[in-house]
Amino acid sequence: MADLALKRSVEGRPILIRTPLLELTKAAIVRRGAELGVNFAQTVSCYQADEAGRACGHCEACRLRRRGFAAAGMDDPTRYQVGATGNK
């Protein structure tokens, strides 16, 4: 990526990186996703998800996701590994 960016920049065609979610809270991201019809049951944020896609419930990504859904007033459809915090 760095090579491509440097080449394009030298050619006067710099790469533009857009980050539309960067300034949003996790709750705002969840609400926006819901507005757009995202099926959150098909998404995973976990750093340590198992082969079946079940979240660990303990890593920072799991904790942030859970807090984001709670702050948005929505149920988090995440599937957790047996014994994980937040397991349904």
Overall shape: it is elongated
Summarize the amount of helix as a percent range: 25-40%
Number of helices: 3
Radius of gyration: 17 Å
**H-E string:** HHH
Major sheet:
none
Average per-residue pLDDT, rounded, comes to 89
Number of domains: 1
Distance between the termini: 41 Å
Q: Estimate what percentage of residues fall within beta strands.
A: under 5%
The helix/strand class is mainly alpha
Total number of beta strands: 0
Poorly predicted residue ranges: none
How would you describe this structure to a colleague?
It contains 3 helices and no strands. The protein has helices spanning 2-10, 26-35, 60-72. Helix 2 packs across helix 3. 11% of the residues are buried.
Output the keywords.
88 residues; mainly alpha; 3 helices; 36% helix; elongated
Condensed summary:
This protein is mainly alpha-helical and 88 residues long. Helix content is 36%, strand content 0%.
Which helices and strands appear, and what pairs or packs with what?
Elements (H helix, E strand, L loop, with lengths): L1 H9 L15 H10 L24 H13 L16
Helix pairs in contact: 2-3
